[in-house]
Fold this sequence. Notes:
Elements: H1 3-21, E1 25-30, E2 34-41, E3 44-52, H2 53-66, E4 78-86, E5 89-99, E6 105-113, H3 120-123, H4 127-137, E7 142-147, H5 154-167, E8 173-177, E9 188-191, H6 200-208, E10 214-217, H7 223-234, E11 238-242, H8 248-257, H9 262-268, E12 269-281, E13 284-293, H10 294-305, H11 318-324, H12 329-335
Parallel strand pairs: 7-11, 7-12, 8-9, 8-10, 10-11
Antiparallel strand pairs: 1-2, 1-6, 2-3, 4-5, 5-6, 12-13
Amino acid sequence: xxxxxxxxxxxxxxxxxxxxxxxxxxxxxxxxxxxxxxxxxxxxxxxxxxxxxxxxxxxxxxxxxxxxxxxxxxxxxxxxxxxxxxxxxxxxxxxxxxxxxxxxxxxxxxxxxxxxxxxxxxxxxxxxxxxxxxxxxxxxxxxxxxxxxxxxxxxxxxxxxxxxxxxxxxxxxxxxxxxxxxxxxxxxxxxxxxxxxxxxxxxxxxxxxxxxxxxxxxxxxxxxxxxxxxxxxxxxxxxxxxxxxxxxxxxxxxxxxxxxxxxxxxxxxxxxxxxxxxxxxxxxxxxxxxxxxxxxxxxxxxxxxxxxxxxxxxxxxxxxxxxxxxxxxxxxxxxx
Length: 336
């Protein structure tokens, strides 16, 4: 058996092993003597063995080749993706490389099952949150924001809601993502490609000419994207996106940091959702949601306009919900 075939087989075996384990990510990290492999599951790393430096280097080159990355470039970070069918299911693999102090590359692969959708009621820890989210996605226009820690399920929640919007409410949905994490056959999905000039801002401008009812933006990360998202929300579109903030109330301040006026926020924003995951069984997790909408959102914005700090009622916060169901404090502090 030639070397190339051996590398291909070992690489595919690694992917299958990670999928069977239920991993969300594969980490291939160089040390001074070998490559260490870990699987991430439910936010924890599990050792999956070691491989030689030569085999690790060749496998990383193979994954870079599949992802259309520059195999010869090992001094700069690179990212890409590829798709493959494993066990009769279609998966997307998002690949990211980093140079390390050992003059070797480190590799992380995110595993994503394609065409996977979950009704929002199956994701929520309690039905009350599901009803609130369905009510928010039923709006004809406005801006709906999600925040939470990395890996807290924000994208899964948004996919669930836009699928409901497309299939149940019969609305035209377009997503703009970097990259597309979950290919959906019945949705129009656009991938950010900065080298081709398709930035979040440029892509969003183009999407608005495509007559969407609902727009999902992977992330609001700069002033231009925030501004266009607000404009879209004010001109008859429902816009969903994620934004980096500690909790729901702090999303308002984050928008202001990005140059959005409090008056624009008042007119456009229909809801802010902060979320985290809690483990309910050995292999199942559910989402807890802190939802700032309706009268709470109105009060939060008015309080902010007066230059005062707003505090969501304690019973509505994630921390209270976590304490109520007996989740350990260290998990709560990590997740919100």
